[in-house]
Amino acid sequence: MVKIEHTIFALPFAFLGAFLAVRGLPDIRQIGWIVLAMIGARSAAMAFNRLVDLPFDSRNPRTANRALPSKQLSKGFVILFIVLSAAILVLAAAMLNPLSLSLSPLALGIIFFYSYTKRFTWFTHMFLGVSLACAPIGAWIALKGSISAAPLILGLAVALWVAGFDIIYSCQDVEFDKKESIFSIPKRFGIRAALWISGILHFIMLVILAFLFVQEGMGTIGFSGLIIVGLLLAYEHSLVRPKDISRANTAFFTINGFVSILLCVTTAIDILWNGLK
């Protein structure tokens, strides 16, 4: 029900926000609470999405074998799981600082609201992006107790990146979305146009990250990582074609997992290297 692969998308960006916030290694206690907050938030978000989307997932051949549609789990268990996961997020936020605690209901509201957006807007992919953008912004707030431009810029880049690869992923369900009146960019504009939109979003993401790296004084290692990320995204887009989206899962899970981890690791090394010099 809660895919570790999806958490890999967001967690490295939470660490990236943390590294940028303190320009070095955060305190191990703070990292522990940030990780716990991430576990709570992602678990609550994914379980809530599965619960809300149960009617659709039951009718979609691609998702009919998920835990809830296949009755491996009950609705009651999932509701309890959501409540406990949300409580973990709030507890972790309370242990970090007052601003994190006060904003934790807003974070939950954002990640829960996304699950309904496919019912009324093809902009749903961007709402998913905003949900995952909470990771680096939240980590920054957790360590600084305040907000500034840098985490918001990073959050925008994350939102565009997520929206871009979610568009690719949703190309698999175009026909089902038409039958069920579900909103998506591939359904609204067609698969060919959707893939172009995805590519444009990823290009803008790279430009925004380059701007952020310049603003933050990143060095060769950080920019090298960004270049490799650009090549990975180009490869991701080469895997899918309007008439052949059979490799959408590879593009969605594998490559984007590498993107987030690589960007986090190279940026962290750059920050630590510059701090040691």
Description of the molecule:
The chain has helices at 4-22, 28-52, 54-59, 75-96, 98-117, 124-144, 149-170, 174-180, 185-189, 191-215, 220-238, 248-276. With 277 residues, it is mainly alpha-helical. The model has no long low-confidence stretch (mean pLDDT 92). The protein has one domain (4-276): UbiA prenyltransferase (Tetracycline Repressor, domain 2). Helices cover 79% and strands 0% of the residues. The radius of gyration is 19 Å and the shape is globular.
Number of strands: 0
Within the CATH hierarchy, at the fold level, what is the topology? Tetracycline Repressor, domain 2
Under CATH at level 1, the class stands as Mainly Alpha
**Oligomerization status of the protein chains:** single chain
Which structural class should the secondary elements be placed in? mainly alpha
Q: How do the helices and strands follow one another from N- to C-terminus?
A: HHHHHHHHHHHH
Strand content: under 5%
Number of helices: 12
Give the biggest beta sheet.
Answer: none
* Level-2 CATH architecture: Orthogonal Bundle
- Choose one word for the global shape: globular
